Amino acid sequence: MGGKLKWPLATAAALALAGAYVYVGVDVRPHEEYVPDPVLAMADADSLPAPPSAYGIPLDGFVIERGTVRAGSTFSDLLTPHGLTGAQVDSLVKLAVPVFDIHRLRAGRPFAFIFTDDSARVPAFFIYEADAVDHVVFTLRPPMAVRLDKRPVTTHTRSLSIAVTGALWNDLAAAGADPALSLYLADVFQWTLDFYKDVQPGDRFTFVYQEHQVDGQRHGQPELLGVRFQGSVKRDAFRFAADSTQAPAYFDGAGNSLRLAFLKAPLKFSRVSSGFSMRRFHPVQHRWKSHLGTDYAAPYGTPILAVGDGVVEKAGYTAGNGNYVKIRHNGVYETQYLHMRKILVKKGQRVQQGQTIGEVGSTGLATGPHVCFRFWKNGQQVDHRKEEMPSAEPIAAVHRAAFEQQRDALLDRMDAAEREAQHITTVAF
After folding, report:
1. pLDDT above 80 (res 216)
2. Residue 386 contacts by C-beta under 8 Å, 6 or more apart in sequence?
3. What CATH number is attached to the domain comprising 290?
4. How many domains does the chain have?
5. Rounded to an integer, what distance in angstroms lies between the CA atom of residue 265 and that of residue 116?
6. Over the stretch 1-56, which tens digit does the pLDDT of each residue have?
7. Sign of torsion, CA 150 151 153 154?
């Protein structure tokens, strides 16, 4: 592996369906196609047991029969084999209108019939599990009724500290944590941490997060409350919202926002294939010339992000630049993104930081898929990696006491997690 960390980031869905991995700092082959991170999947309801109350229905005198919706099945297809008439099915459909659209039945979703436990086996209830939490209960005997019930979702605050071995996703899984936590780090530290350069094997991440569960199984996405990184650089991040009307953001221990006016790079995960230089041998023109930008190699189709808020000044094509976009951020800063496969914005359009403005390609003078990123300050092209970028507003004075109280509680949990990890390491060796 050398000194560089190769960090696969994927979700449980990707592992199950495609076996694909996304790597930080992976060598990119010219015709490798970008595969987007799939949306994090909820726990499969097929594996979840019914609650002890059997959907809130007392089971004395009843038996349950389970199944899953087959492809192409309709609501009527499920009910009429159990003796319900077309008129009864129609009545249930009408009763369901304010509660659930029966046309949203999905193949593979679990359902259950509850019958009377006697020789007649009269169907009393039909339950359709819309997802791991929501289930629709149809009362089949007069008076017919339809209601939407929910399984209880419990929230647990957890903390852990792990040393990076090379694949943080696997390290988290081995520690019994939700590996999806690794996916949030790029968003939290995107302004302050270079995951290709700064994160190395042996470095340590300490997490405090909330995990949601349904019937003892993970449900939905974890919420990262705080994280500490210790390596060649040290970074702390604490989530805080002044009140319920504000979206949570991440701040360092001093209350300074981790959000900068500009992202460190126009791609979430990539590698620098060529830096800013006044003298570089051009791979296409085969001559020495200045390279007033930074090349980030990535697979074809990788989303290219606007590094800051601004207005699209240019969006078009030239022989050298290929498909490109230029954004004016204010009276001081401009940025440009070259060699796109596809442009996704128009001239005059206002864009926000992190918005996808195009896809990585190799149009123009390019030998492989990458984006050449150029940065202007006061009309001069500069190396953005050497610039001191302005940051967002810090914690307001009126909210500082609340922030410090929340920060200190998270620090206590982080310290305890690190002591526990050190104890485990000492015992093991």
Report:
1. yes
2. none
3. 2.70.70.10
4. 2
5. 63
6. 444 444 443 333 343 334 333 333 334 445 566 655 544 333 343 444 444 356 87
7. positive
